[in-house]
Amino acid sequence: MNSFPSSLDNLIINTDSNPEGRRRLTREEILVFGWLARNLKGRTYSDMARECKLTIEQCIKAVQGLLALGLLRVRDRT
To answer: Which of 25, 49, 57, 71 has the fewest CB atoms within 10 Å, counting from its CB?
Structure first.
């Protein structure tokens, strides 16, 4: 599993992710994934929670789930 990002702006969609054998996404993961795809800079959990109509805890759990599934990854610092 990837390390948890220090900033939401460091998260990128993993286009190399393999969908085979993957569990279904939760409602929260779908909302957060879409929000991250639309908002590329200046991301905050407060904005994510407000716009997705979730709690900050739900947003954090969804980001962790998306990272664990390999749908998101942390941007390389190089």
So the answer is: 57
